[in-house]
């Protein structure tokens, strides 16, 4: 071997050594722009970010445009799915005409919504004890997470009845062994979580609207607990809980929680920022026009898709007096039944957009979508004044918030609980005051607080807000009222467990849907 | 008589050119002259060509020289023997002393020149008298001279690597042209980190050579393998120009990414990244199919390894070549869809059956209506490809450089379906000194693609729209009265050049819109990429047999696109209410570094090669930026610009980075053979991957294989029946880490945002993506391969392989139950799968007179079975989604092929109410009480007396299990014909062309044969708008069709103008040809094209069909 080769061989050999020697380090790649779960939740900011993620689920909108309010409206007698055709947002269509099956319907999204929220709440509740941060702030986060978990479980148990119940994250080893819990156990957990939140002194009675509007308050927890009790038919407890929210004198401000009915019903549907988190709002679903959502990921936008969905198709303003709606997709059209019920009510104009009338008078024109009735849901239909001028797709960036619970609702719930608990509803009773406070706000004269009157009031006051279907089922009226739509008693009171959730799991389909649970 | 060529190739490494000036040292005592020649050959790196019979009687030689020249050595050895030699470049030809030294005789002398088909001279070719022992070899100028008994004698001309030719003598001069043949004995194949003689290879390797590629217009490299290599299944993902194909080596290996590892001149390139290669630059493509050959690529080899070698320059004269073609393409087939009258008739029927009224009072009044397919298909789509290469070099340096240009228009929506590519290549080697060589191979390509957007998607796109849109809707609205009413009054209505609005259907909506209107919204949008892939190496050979080589390779890619979105109103569901302009740019960077040491030694008949190597690899270092400007004041792509400085809140920007994927490896290989008769190979590779946690960071992948060349045994009968026989077998394990980054960890994801407060801003929320799995480990694939290769009756080559491939611990992100609540699914090692298959390759080469004929065929069969899904799970949740049903149409289940079609089985149609009533369960209850005559009778698989999701069953396999192809080459004088046929069978195709959820979508003419009354049909159910029985919306065997096909992939007729003529104008070779691609496809499938690739094969959502092309081309060299 020639000597001059030696350096090369040495160099190569050294190269081999070096490469082998440092390979462990070479193979360590640090994730960029993301963090590992094990490294996260290390301070108050990260804990707060985790809390935001739980709230995020309240505003769940799927890529297929399925939302809780949209689905529940479609299933009710007040709306038809509408849209562009019989398969436009199939989940709404099949719920609206009661042809839903375990594989097709809104259940998959509503199920995923609930459990996503529960998972994020459970993660946070498991992580919080070890987070170095202000203890009082931490206690507030715990209370909020429990409140949100209860909120998600409440929707799930109402919709599906037979659901898995877990208050910890499910490990990969256990995830196929999960069983469905008894509904009463789920309710018990909901009550526990809500009572824990109420007991937490760090959970505020009110929050500063400008910065914290939308975060849980003690008032919201009482309201939700009252609503839960009402569903459980624990009327006395429900009334007691809701009374805390509604205050001593119906119609007067509740100083502790800051609640008061808005003077003008129509102001509830103003969707500008200043109108958000008003004094009537107890639990509000927040949206914004600034997230620049695009068609690429409908579920990623922070804008409210109901606005574009409920707008009339091909809406054209012909006279300046026409309302400034934008052209939408004509979903959730109002049924003649609701129209007839509300036509002469003071809340009509804020609730229903009568395009047939506008067209007949040459004020505006529109295209007739699927199952067109001529009546649209004015509460949510997108407004030109509210269309984003910022980035993203206009259709997906409407900022209108939705009310999950508002004061008129808790008034009527308390009234209902009182009446169901034996109160007469005659003038002078609290239920009478509650009902007629809601009526008085829109200038209606008082009526007796009978169960039926309260129920009818709920329909008109809360039309389109996603409560009607739940109310019909809760009060046993669904089979009668929804029969015309195809509702089958003993079956359609709940949604089927989504087909894919039965695959390889120990879950069983509910008996109502031909299953064994 | 045995003619032997020693091509000195240190079996595994590319040799450096050395040549006759090499200094040689030999010290031998009384050894056969053959051995000395062999030693000279080895040390000097030159070929020594001789006739063994000449040496047979020679005395043993004793020699002792140091640093002598080749000439000195040869002079010493041959001085006392009746032999002379000539030196021709790097070849030494040993022959007998000139004839005149022997006794004269009376026979006649024939002289001539032997050349190859390119006209180059062939030194060392043998000329023999048929049946006799006399013979000679050609000299350095390819000339020979031989005495024969007289006219009528038959001479046999042969040369190693060329087809033997025999001629009867009737003239004193006989010039012969020999055609190159590759025989099992001489062919070399590229293996991992080197080259091996095919006759001693013990693994299962299929190769495609440059000559195979020249006969087919290949836009992307994968297509070159289709039908030419056994054990490889290839299906195009789309007929859109520039689209890739799905490549599966020996079936589906894993549930994950089944793309093979592509290694271009030693640089690992991802599956999508091979589009930069130009077909004419390829020297050879080798597919490593079994673990024994793959194991040297260890951790990433499980799905097969494909080695691509580009052309290198040769020392000698400068060669300039041009290859090109020009032609047109057209769709091979259109669907038979209903015309307007038929459509209206069937709509009426369906509406009435569904309880509605007549929709169209007078169907006949619509006439034929619109043929949407003819609106989007182009029967004259242009296609061309041109390539010029220059190669050459001298003793010190050689080079190959080329320039290529390809342009192809799509046959669907040509305005938005185009592809162009420009290639450059420079390969060169430089001899720095006697013992050091430096070289590099660099390829660059720019491409620009206009795409139709959604392809093979039921959700829109021009094809899906053309299929589903009703024929009543006009292409354009010419009546001003209609154009002045809704919906044509909407903002954003698309209009043609004459200002007529494009028709909008009032029967079919959602994503299905007028395809011409859709096309008008996408004009100009394009994607582009620049790819630079190259490597550089330094190789030193300090002592005999030892080679050290360092290679650094890199891929640098830039890609992006520009999209302008106009204000548009295509129908009431497809509205874009503002303009936007998006520009995205991406960059990617991969590198690898490899150091290899190899040592080759022959001791008597023992030949050993050892190879040790080390490698470090990094890929996926990507960065992306994209920006969208909303409300750009432009109404078309050309005018759109980011120079329009829209308000800052209308500018949406995004970006991302990929995570490095790194692998660190050590590997070794030993090859041993005794007399090229007993063959042994062992490989071990250890890989560490950044994709696994500390528990399982490293994987070790061993393999060994054995071979026995039986035909070299003394006892082997020396007959023509079997002149070569090799039996080989091997076993090995390879791995796969293709599961994405940080899968073993639980990461925190962002984007879970919520808007607290009323300022309009929102908070960014974070939560875990998926539960962690710290025990995540390598997926491993073990494979046993047994095969043989034989040459039968001299002209037939046979190669056969049987294999069993088992993949264990398949890395998966199984769908986890939604009640877990995680946003994504955690990775786990969950499943096992098995492939068993056989492969057969046959070749036949024969020259009969002036007709040369060559036939190459291959057929392979593979059976795929899932053998374990873990945890007592019998099937995976989920599957391929289809339209708006959440019934997946495929299911991966135990003992079934992966992704088998899964759905309801039909059992005819209820002809009468009595049929419905008689369809009862064991307890006498009606199984389908709601059905009416004309509805499908569903099979009640579980026998529970009702039709539920539990009645679904496995109804077909989407992946073909038989693939075959054959090529016939025939030549006569200047003419040549190439026929290439390729096919696949054994699969079903899910024909999901019609939207199940759009009841008013158009039908194929098959619907004319729908059920109309008792006895009308048992196959196609009644039409109704109220399909309670879910005749159409249940995924069922109704949608499955036989996916077998056989296709004349190319048929070519060429003519080579005699070189005698062309040489006068300085042209070596000039060949013209006409070529048809996809001339004919035989299939029972009724959709556009049975070749449907993708993650899961054979789901037809409206695939962009393969074009049928006719082209004229030229191959020329100067």
Tell me what the structure shows.
- With 517 residues, chain A is mainly alpha-helical.
- Helix content of chain A is 42%, strand content 7%.
- In chain A, strands 2-5 form a two-stranded antiparallel sheet. Chain A has a two-stranded antiparallel sheet with strand order 3-9. Chain A has a two-stranded antiparallel sheet with strand order 4-7.
- In chain A, helix 6 (107-127) packs antiparallel against helix 7.
- The mean pLDDT of chain A is 91.
- By secondary structure, chain B is mainly β.
- Helix content of chain B is 8%, strand content 44%.
- Chain B is built from 13 helices and 57 strands.
- In chain B, a hairpin with a 2-residue loop joins strand 14 (188-191) and strand 15.
- In chain B, helix 1 packs antiparallel against helix 3 (70-78).
- Strand 1 (35-36) of chain A pairs antiparallel with strand 39 (747-749) of chain B, so a sheet runs across the interface.
In short:
The complex is a heterodimer of chains A (517) and B (1118). By secondary structure, chain A is mainly α. Chain A has helices at residues 6-21, 23-26, 44-56, 68-75, 90-96, 107-127, 135-160, 183-199, 209-212, 218-231, 235-246, 305-310, 336-342, 348-351, 355-360, 407-420, 430-441, 451-461, 468-474, 478-481, 499-502, and strands spanning 35-36, 79-82, 281-285, 313-317, 331-334, 352-354, 364-367, 375-377, 402-406.
